[in-house]
Amino acid sequence: MPRTILHIDMDAFFASVEQRVHPELSGRPVAVCGANARTVVLTASYEARAFGVKTGMTLPEARALCPGLIVVPGDHDRYIDVSRRLVEIYQDYTPTVEVFSVDEAFLDVTASRTLFGDGESIAAAIKHRVRRETGLTASVGIGPNKLLAKLASGLKKPDGLVRIELENLPIFLENLPVKALCGIGPNLGRALAEMGIRTCGELGRAPLERLTGRFGIIGRSLKAMGQGQDDRPVVPAEEEPEAKSIGHGMTLARDSSRPEEIEQHLLHLSEMVGRRARRNRLAGNVVTLTLRYADFQTFTRQRRIKTFLNDGIEIHLEARRIFRAVRLQQAVRLVGVSLSGLSRDAGQIPLFEADRKRRRLIAAMDGINDRHGGWTVRWGTLLTRDPHKTVISPAWRPKGVRDYD
Ligand SMILES: [Mg+2]
């Protein structure tokens, strides 16, 4: 039986939320970014896009294109809050909601059709409720699978509703560039182009052996993608396989070669990693340090430890130990800390009273921070840092513990 899959993609999500909260921004060119001057544009409003401002641009680049650009630091708690409300709306139509990013979700509404009508009716109802309850617009794609639903949502933005029908599929795919497919990024697109494959039609007709000879087993999925086939299920968050790592990274306000400054960032990042691990009741025994140099070369090294950690200070000590063994080759542009080798935190009571005290203190801090949000209570050493400088990436998910990077 053919499935009916929706892909819902909020239009200029962060910027639209800001325009909704600050009505004086509506109708004006807005770019949402981190508070750090070196971060990039996370989302531009449609008014800013009209000037060519795009996600990923640096602020000077964006301002050069759009002199009247209004730059707004992102407020990730607010986006998470709106994202949760959106998912609640979707769940009124089907339990099978896969949150793909902070502003995108896949819904399998195959079984909901008897209750709510066909895919278009459900999509229209959801768009209506999203607008009424959040004031935001969404673009919805409808297709027989995730690949085509995602493709469809991108065809008409903003506020679109597009269905890709199986009957017209071959004509539709014939001249469609392969890079339009979710999953075919610039590198893969280039490799295919080198083989003379530029359109989905060409990809779908390419001999399987040629594709597997070049790409290994993914050659088979590539050929299927070229034909618009995709049998991946929509997986609700609670069924997702457990995260393999928890990490945070940040671009420094300016390149730094000062160890004490870098270590301060490592402490902050380690605290964030520890807190996220504790919130998900996980602990890990591998700490990884990532440094990206000014020329974008990336250095990564990990340490496996005997015990499982989720205390930010302990994670920091391990990250710092790795860092202190590194001879910096250049100034550092980005630092990252991640925790892997994750397992359920059994919550064992430590042997020594000092450790028991520390565990109670951390639990109390987490409790306060969970209730009052963000970083109400922090270790003294962190107080010199502005916690809001780290802004959520669009790859954030409200459930699970996916990487931010
Ligand atoms: Mg979007």
Number of helices: 15
- Average pLDDT level: 85
- Spatially, the strands of the biggest sheet line up as 5-6-1-7-8
N-to-C series of helices and strands: EHEEHHEHEEHHEHEHHHHHEHEEHEH
Number of domains: 3
The chain-level structural class is alpha+beta
The major sheet is characterized as: 5 strands, mixed
Shape: globular
By CATH's scheme, which homologous superfamily of the largest domain applies? Answer: Reverse transcriptase/Diguanylate cyclase domain
State the distance separating the first and last CA atoms: 38 Å
Strand content: 15-25%
Q: For this structure, what is the CATH class of the largest domain?
A: Alpha Beta
Bound molecules: magnesium ion
Which runs of at least 5 residues are low in confidence (pLDDT < 50)?
A: 380-405
Helix content: 25-40%
Give descriptors for this structure.
405 residues, alpha+beta, Alpha-Beta Plaits, DNA polymerase, domain 1, Dna Ligase, domain 1, 3 domains, 12 strands, 39% helix, 21% strand, disordered C terminus, binds magnesium ion
SSE layout and pairing:
Elements: E1 5-10, H1 13-21, E2 30-33, E3 41-44, H2 46-49, H3 59-65, E4 70-73, H4 76-91, E5 97-101, E6 104-108, H5 113-116, H6 119-134, E7 138-143, H7 146-153, E8 161-163, H8 169-174, H9 186-194, H10 200-205, H11 208-215, H12 218-226, E9 245-256, H13 259-279, E10 282-293, E11 298-309, H14 312-324, E12 332-344, H15 353-372
Parallel strand pairs: 2-4, 7-8
Antiparallel strand pairs: 1-6, 1-7, 2-3, 5-6, 9-12, 10-11, 10-12
The protein binds magnesium ion.
Describe this entry's structure for a reader:
This protein is of the alpha+beta class and 405 residues long. The chain has 3 domains: 1-165, Alpha-Beta Plaits; 169-226, DNA polymerase, domain 1, CATH 1.10.150; 241-389, Dna Ligase, domain 1. Helix content is 39%, strand content 21%. It contains 15 helices and 12 strands. The protein has helices spanning 13-21, 46-49, 59-65, 76-91, 113-116, 119-134, 146-153, 169-174, 186-194, 200-205, 208-215, 218-226, 259-279, 312-324, 353-372; strands spanning 5-10, 30-33, 41-44, 70-73, 97-101, 104-108, 138-143, 161-163, 245-256, 282-293, 298-309, 332-344. The strands form 3 sheets. The chain has a 5-stranded mixed beta sheet with strand order 5-6-1-7-8. A 4-stranded antiparallel beta sheet has the order 9-12-10-11. Strand 5 and strand 6 form a beta hairpin. Helix 4 packs antiparallel against helix 6 (119-134), helix 11 (208-215) crosses helix 12 and helix 13 (259-279) packs antiparallel against helix 14. The radius of gyration is 23 Å and the shape is globular. It starts with a strand and ends in a 33-residue tail after the last helix. Magnesium ion binds at residues 9-10, 13, 103-104.
